[in-house]
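Morning!

This is the sequence you dropped in the shared folder:
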Amino acid sequence: MSADKLPPGLHPDTLAVRTGIAPSAYGENSEALYLTSCFVQPDAATSARRFANEEDGYTYSRTSNPSVTAFERRLAALEGSEAAIGTSSGMAAILLMGMGLLRSGDHVVCSRSVFGSTLNLFAKEFGKFGVETTFVSQTDLAEWRAAIRPHTKLLFAETPTNPLTEVCDVAALATMAHDAGALLAVDNCFATPVLQKPIALGADIVIHSGTKFLDGQGRVMAGALCTSRKRVDEVFAPLIRTAGMVLAPFNAWVVHKGLETLSIRVRAQSDNALQIARWLESHPAVDRVFYPGLPSHPQHALAMAQQGGVGGAVIAFSVKADSPEQGRARAFHVLDSARVCSLATNLGDVKTLICHPASTSHGRLTEAQRQAAGVVQGLIRVAVGLEHAPDIQNDLARGLDGCAQIV
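The structure's back. Tokens below.
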């Protein structure tokens, strides 16, 4: 059902199932897939008005498509934003944001703990066009404040971070950004709107990789920006129409349907993750566990306040080792010993995925950049799925129990 037909005050779980677009003349209950590149116009005058944005209506799927609109409306309803715009991937969403908001001479302050491709996008690609980025500690507000300059236009953070699950104070960063005349953008991929709503905490833009939890079954690539209606209509929509990093209708439909079960999936996966994180802390081969739901996590209290008391479904842990080389060998041993968990670099899937960040998601960074981000060679990331938790635990134990033999 279209958002304007729903009564006000509905719970997010209801919005996740009911928000979308009105059904077609056939009255389908499961949203239709509009797999078309263009739309037939009733007459030339109407076509002209629609192409000139003087009248609502679909013309060409690079501009808009009903399946994409349905996804955008549902995600915006869950995030509590006025609007959303779908993109071909999560990284395309960050690219769209940067291209829309930044120009030569502008300055960005970004957490140095963000995803490796995000680091490269800000440091290398945006840098080619005269946009300077200062990377700061995810958790040190004083460092963020000291990095702001008169020409700072954007503060960018993800929380929790990939892979070390560091948590930043969204409300504090929002105040800091607005006092400086800048915007705050938050990547909400790990927490999803089920656990955390950055807009409500003061953020101006929320970024999603729909490839992750929003889809939930690792089927398609997708991304989105959630923000004000004015920013979508006047900044991002005209740009995406020109640049073409659009979300495919089929992918939009898949993720749109995935949102219907987002809440129950994220909460069940988070329950599994907490159980596994507690067990990992007690394993003699594990050096350290990074999980916001554990009291040992440096930002545990903040995470519980921002994420509704839930730690999320992603864990990172490092194996004990005497050298980086031994750490890498032991981490590889754990990965190669798995028989239930999938060795893959995605996350948010109903299947548990394990990976070695230093050689995958952060593999293109320099060793100095990896060290600054805390991504050591003995680090393993576990994106916990919906399998029986003891089965996941036993699968990890298969490798961990033999680590001492890896010298």
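Headline: The CA atoms of residues 20 and 73 lie 6 Å apart.

More detail when I'm at my desk.
O.
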